[in-house]
């Protein structure tokens, strides 16, 4: 898993632009982190001064970006041999690995310390744990060792709404844990759908994703099992009373559609170059965004009407 681009001399490296450092932060992942953290903050009881709310979201987003930079630093060797990641700043030779590592560490420390000093230390501690879990537990340990990497590692991506809640309340409750559970349960079918049509890329890099270890048929069955579980977990905000009737109806409909698409994938197999897997992957993004958007709108309306 080596690549000539990782053996360039210091003189050959360079040409980094602002956009390359932004790419290190994984902006698409960061946008999801910001969005789910915002929902956690809005659903939380009480309120936070607007300035502190902005600082909270900034720190959470910077912490997420720091995780992405550390991930790209450690994974530069496998990124170089995967088609969809070969153009990233490090394997393409635009940023030195040492620069990415320094960048990620500085942002990690900065985001945690500012959040702790400006908001509260519980939220800062949770953010620090999130960065550690993604950069060390998932990236260094799980990703290259077990096919359950996405299942266990999904905890890192599921923590932002918990951090957001802690920013507002200074504590924890069952509501943010439910939001955590939704994202945690959503992660395996989302990424395994991607792994089905990108299995050759993962195999080339030596990453033990589920299709490469257990086979495509087993992966499709597990996607269906998690989809059924997700449909039930997605209803919990309504069942537990912090998601309204509209949320319950939308969650039920989206959950049923998620299951339907997983069944189609199970029956279709690898026909049409896993077109069903690609469609499920795309729908999974719509599913998560819609559920959290409904909760956000509901919380916003409650705040306006209650003012």
- What is the CA-atom radius of gyration, in angstroms? 20 Å
**So what's the overall shape?**
flat
Total of domains: 2
| Helical stretch tally | 15
The CATH topology of the largest domain, please?
A: Tetracycline Repressor, domain 2
The end-to-end distance, rounded to whole angstroms, is: 58 Å
Q: How would you name the CATH homologous superfamily of the largest domain?
A: UbiA prenyltransferase
Report the CATH architecture of the largest domain.
Orthogonal Bundle
Strand content: under 5%
Instruction: Give the overall average pLDDT.
Output: 91
- Give the helix level as a range of percent: over 70%
Low-confidence stretches: 1-6, 8-12
CATH class of the largest domain: Mainly Alpha
Number of strand segments: 0
> Main β-sheet, in a few words?
none
The topology string of helices and strands comes to HHHHHHHHHHHHHHH
Class derived from helix and strand content = mainly alpha
Family: Belongs to the UbiA prenyltransferase family. Protoheme IX farnesyltransferase subfamily.
Protein name: Protoheme IX farnesyltransferase
InterPro entries: Protohaem_IX_farnesylTrfase, UbiA_prenyltransferase, UbiA_prenylTrfase_CS, UbiA_sf
Catalytic activity: heme b + (2E,6E)-farnesyl diphosphate + H2O = Fe(II)-heme o + diphosphate
């Amino acid at each position: 898993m080596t690549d000539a681009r990782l053996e360039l001399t210091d003189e050959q490296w360079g040409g980094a632009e602002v956009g390359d450092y932004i790419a290190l932060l994984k902006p698409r992942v960061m946008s999801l982190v910001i969005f789910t953290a915002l929902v956690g903050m809005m659903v939380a009881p009480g309120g936070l001064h607007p300035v502190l709310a902005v600082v909270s979201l900034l720190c959470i987003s910077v912490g997420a970006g720091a995780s992405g930079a550390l991930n790209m630093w450690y994974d530069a060797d496998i990124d170089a041999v995967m088609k969809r990641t070969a153009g990233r700043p490090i394997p393409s030779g635009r940023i030195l690995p040492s620069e990415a590592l320094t960048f990620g560490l500085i942002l990690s420390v900065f985001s945690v310390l500012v959040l702790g000093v400006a908001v509260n230390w519980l939220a800062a501690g949770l953010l620090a744990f999130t960065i550690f879990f993604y950069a060390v537990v998932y990236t260094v340990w799980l990703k290259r060792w077990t096919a359950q990497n996405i299942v266990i590692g999904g905890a890192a991506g599921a923590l932002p709404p918990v951090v957001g809640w802690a920013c507002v309340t200074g504590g924890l409750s069952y509501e943010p844990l439910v939001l955590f559970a939704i994202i945690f349960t959503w992660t395996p079918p989302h990424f395994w759908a991607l792994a089905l049509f990108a299995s050759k890329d993962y195999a080339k890099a030596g990453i033990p994703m589920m299709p490469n270890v257990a086979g495509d048929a087993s992966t499709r069955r597990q996607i269906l099992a998690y989809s059924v579980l997700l449909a039930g977990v997605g209803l919990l905000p309504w069942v537990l009373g912090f998601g309204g009737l509209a949320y319950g109806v939308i969650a039920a409909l989206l959950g049923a559609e998620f299951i339907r698409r997983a069944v189609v994938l199970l029956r279709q197999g690898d026909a049409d170059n896993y077109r069903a897997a690609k469609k499920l992957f795309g729908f999974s993004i719509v599913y998560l965004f819609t559920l959290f958007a409904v909760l956000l709108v509901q919380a916003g309306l409650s705040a306006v009407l209650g003012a």
